[in-house]
DNA sequence: TAGGCCATCTGGTCCT
DNA sequence: AGGACCAGATGGCCTA
């Protein structure tokens, strides 16, 4: 395990980490050498069905009022020989789909295309989320998996909320003109999440440095030890 | 080779 | 009726 993996593993709260490792194992965190973002093959290989649809039912794609109809084609790799779902195989080899009336088949393909666009939009949103999460975006680092992206985003939001609350309390404290050396009252955790906020005001000084948007600050948010 | 992750297809359900 | 959303199934790619 390299340093990057360790850092990311530290980012997950204990309960979340336990849950993740139980459900998905450590690979749920999306690390592994050699897996590079934007690796060959792309995320959206061209399926023969999609190819068919782009030529046959492009009109229905536009009818959805979404802006992604062109994007879909851009993502596809016509050279990718990968085959997709069983239904397509059935279709290709004269399966159930090909036995359906032409109208039904057309409708099914249209529905498939819509679903594909929907999932692409969802993935675009996830990419947007990844882009604002402070983790290593280096090409040599594997892209965060979907589940890891969501969990890190949750941690990041909680961390930011807590940092904001700490800052507010500090400002309020300073405005009162009290001595900085007197103990700062135990902060009330925002959003009723006291159990997941290990920080106290006394830890603010050391934590503040690490709230600079670096991955480490996010990674350690929910560790037992503050910062 | 097993397991993780992912894209796609599909049928069902709900909503407008 | 048509579209959005969802979950299950399936199969490919990649890594340990």
From TrEMBL:
Domain BHLH intervals: 106-160
By what name is this protein known?
A: Basic helix-loop-helix family, member e23
Its annotated compartments are: Nucleus
One GO biological process term:
sensory organ development
Q: Does the keyword Transcription feature in the UniProt annotation?
A: yes
- The UniProt entry's coiled-coil ranges are none
Output the InterPro entries linked to this UniProt entry: bHLH_dom (IPR011598), bHLH_transcription_factors (IPR050359), HLH_DNA-bd_sf (IPR036638)
Gene Ontology molecular function terms on file: DNA-binding transcription factor activity, RNA polymerase II-specific; E-box binding; protein dimerization activity
Q: Which UniProt keywords apply?
A: Nucleus, Transcription, Transcription regulation
What Gene3D superfamilies does the record point to? Helix-loop-helix DNA-binding domain
UniProt KW Transcription keyword: yes
**Polar residues composition-biased segments:** 54-67
- The annotated region (Disordered) lies at 39-107
Query: Bias category Basic and acidic residues: which stretches?
Result: 76-106
Query: What do the Gene Ontology cellular component annotations say?
Result: nucleus
């Amino acid at each position: 395990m390299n340093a990057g993996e360790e850092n990311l593993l530290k980012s997950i709260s204990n309960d979340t980490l336990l849950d993740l490792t139980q459900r998905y194992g450590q690979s749920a965190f999306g690390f592994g050498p050699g897996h590079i973002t934007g690796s060959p093959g792309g995320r959206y290989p061209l399926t023969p069905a999609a190819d068919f649809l782009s030529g046959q039912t492009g009109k229905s794609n536009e009818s959805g009022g979404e802006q992604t109809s062109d994007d879909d084609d851009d993502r596809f790799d016509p050279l990718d020989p990968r085959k997709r779902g069983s239904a397509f195989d059935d279709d290709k080899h004269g399966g159930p789909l090909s036995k359906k009336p032409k109208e039904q088949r057309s409708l099914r393909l249209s529905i498939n295309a819509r679903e594909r666009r929907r999932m692409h939009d969802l993935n675009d949103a996830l990419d947007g989320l990844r882009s604002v999460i402070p983790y290593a975006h280096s090409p040599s680092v594997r892209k965060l998996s979907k589940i890891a992206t969501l969990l890190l985003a949750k941690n990041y939001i909680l961390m930011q909320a807590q940092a904001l609350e700490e800052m507010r309390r500090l400002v309020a404290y300073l405005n009162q003109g009290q001595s900085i050396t007197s103990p700062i009252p135990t902060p009330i955790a925002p959003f009723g999440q006291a159990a997941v906020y290990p920080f106290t005001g006394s830890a603010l000084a050391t934590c503040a440095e690490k709230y600079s948007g670096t991955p480490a600050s996010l990674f350690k948010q929910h560790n037992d030890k503050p910062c």
